[in-house]
Amino acid sequence: MAIKHLSPELLNERRKQAVKLRLDGHTVAVASQQTGLSAPTVSAAWKAFREGGWAAVPVKPRGRLKGQANVLGTDVQALLWQALYQEPRNSLLHLAPGWSSAGLAEWLSTQHGVVLSQRAIEHWWEAQGLKHKPWKLEYLTNSHLANNYLAKQRSQEGRWFRSAVAPVFTKLKDADQRWQGGVRRVARPSGSVYQIYLHGPRGRLLMRCFKKPPKAQDYLAVFDALNSSGAAALVFHGALLSASPEVTDWLAQQPAFWLVPVPADFTLTI
Amino acid sequence: MTSLTHLQRLEAESIQIMREVVAEAENPVMLYSVGKDSAVMLHLARKAFAPGPPPFPLLHVDTRWKFRAMYEFRDKMAEEIGMDLLVHINPEGIEKDINPFTHGSAIHTDVMKTEGLKQALDKYGFDAAFGGARRDEEKSRAKERVFSFRSAQHRWDPKNQRPELWKLYNTRKNPKESIRVFPISNWTELDIWQYIHLQNIPIVPLYYSAERPVVERDGALIMVDDERMPLESGEVPMMRKVRFRTLGCYPLTGAVESEADTLPAIIQEMLLTKTSERQGRVIDHDSAASMEKKKQEGYF
C-alpha cells in the first residue's frame, strides 16, 4: 500500500516499527523494506525519535482541528435562522416544501447581498445539529449493496418496509416521487428548535424550522408543496399525524399522495 | 460478621414495618398504584411473608385516567402473584363524569383519589393501609411519620405526630381511627431503582425510554395515551423519546426526555438528576403546600 494511503494510526505504527528496527541496528534500507515506508520517512522517524523520544515519532494529526473552521458571522447566522423560520423558497425563490442549501444561498444573495456557498450552509447546518441523515429506504434488489438496505433485512423494520413502504415505492417508477422526512426537536443552548426535514432524491435535504411544535397547517403546507412538486410518496417519522383531523382530511382528498408513517421506536439504519 | 449493605438495611426495616402492621392491625390493606414504589412494596411484602402470600389484599383506587399500560400491568401482576386485587372507583365521580380536562386537576384528584380512597377504606373497613410514599418525594411527605395516624374522617394532623424513636412504633389507635403506613418512607428514588435492578422486579414499561406521542402543555410533556385526550386546534402530537419518572393519571403526568431504556441507564440518569420526580406531577403544582393540604384532607 502506498504510504499516502495509510491511515494516521497505521502510519504511526509503521514509523514506530521502523525506529525499533533502527534501534536494533538495521539500516535505513532494511527498515524501509520491512515497514513499507520510504527511506526518507524512515530517516525522518529516526531523527524525530533521537530529538524527542517515542512521543515525537507519531505524525501530527492531519487537517484542521474541530472548532477551528471559519465560523459564519453572527449577522449571517441570524439571517439563516430568520430564513429557516420563514416560508421556504427554492433556488428560483418560488414556494418550496422546505429550504434547501441552494434556496438559502439564493435568498441570502438576492435579499441581503450575502454570498455564501451551499457547502458553507451545509457545514453550518451540521454545526447547528440540523443536518439529518436519510435512512436507507431505497428499494434495491439487484445491487450488491441490497443487504444493507431495509428491503433485505429480516428484522421488524425490514418486515415493515416490505409491507408498508415497498408496495408504494414499487408503484412509483420515478425516484423523484419517493421522499422521506420527519419532524424532531433539536436542543440548542438558546432553546428548542422544531425541525421538519425532508430528504428528496440524490440526498437532497430540505428543512423548515419552528419555535414551537409544528401545527397541522405547517405539516399541510409542507405536504401540499411536496405534492405540487411531483412527490407521490412520503415516509414520515416523528409525528402522530393520524391524530390530526386536518391532516387525515387532507390526505383523504389526495388519492395520489401516499403518506407512510414510520412506527415508533424503529431503528432505521443510517 | 458481615455488615448489611444500605439496601439490605432498608429492606430489613421495611419488612419489619410490614410484619409489625400485620401483627397489630385487624384489617390491613396495601394500596397499589401500579408504579415503581408499589412494585417494590409488593415485592417486599411477598418477601416478608414468604412462602405464603401476604395476608392482606391489594387496593387500587382507580380514577379511569391511568395509562393503558398501567392497567395491563396491574391485571397481569394480580394474576401472576395470586393476591386479591380490589379496584375502587368513586361512583360519584363516574356519575358526574369527573375528569382532569373539564374539572381541572384539583377537583379530579380530590374526587377520584382522595374521596375514592376514603370511600374504599370505609367500605372494606380497613384500619391500616400501606402506602408507597417516600420522604424524598415531596416536603410534606418528608415530615410524615412511618406510622401516620388518621382521624375517623381520615384527616391527618401534621402537628400531632407520634415519635418513632429507635424504630419503636406505637400502633395504638382509637376506634374508627386508621393508620397509613409507609414502609419505604426512608428509601430514595435511587434506592428504589437500585433495588428494582438488584431484585429484577417487573415494572410498567412506561418507566423505560421509548418514542411516545406527546404534546407540550405548560412546559410539561403530556403523553397522548388515548382518544379522550383533547388536542388544541391544529395540534399534532410529536413522537419524542421520553420516559416517566413517576406515574399517575396520564393527563396530569409529565414525561421527561430521556434515552434511558435499561435499568442501568436509568440509575446512571438518576445519579445526575437534581430534581424530584414529583416535578412531573401537575397536581403538586396546584397551589403552595397543595400536597400537605391534600394529605390533611385524606390524600395518601
TrEMBL record, chain A:
Superkingdom of the organism of origin: Bacteria
Residue intervals of the Insertion element IS150 protein InsJ-like helix-turn-helix domain: 14-57
Name of this chain's protein: Helix-turn-helix domain-containing protein
TrEMBL record, chain B:
InterPro entries: PAPS_reduct_dom (IPR002500), Rossmann-like_a/b/a_fold (IPR014729), SO4_adenylTrfase_ssu (IPR011784), Sulfate_adenylyltrnsfr_sub2 (IPR050128)
Domain of life: Bacteria
Subunit structure of this chain's protein: Heterodimer composed of CysD, the smaller subunit, and CysN.
Organism the protein comes from: Vreelandella alkaliphila
Pfam family, one: PAPS_reduct
The entry's keywords: ATP-binding, Nucleotide-binding, Nucleotidyltransferase, Transferase
This protein's record includes keyword ATP-binding: yes
Name of the featured protein: Sulfate adenylyltransferase subunit 2
Family the entry assigns: Belongs to the PAPS reductase family. CysD subfamily.
Residues of the Phosphoadenosine phosphosulphate reductase domain: 27-254
Pathway: Sulfur metabolism; hydrogen sulfide biosynthesis; sulfite from sulfate: step 1/3
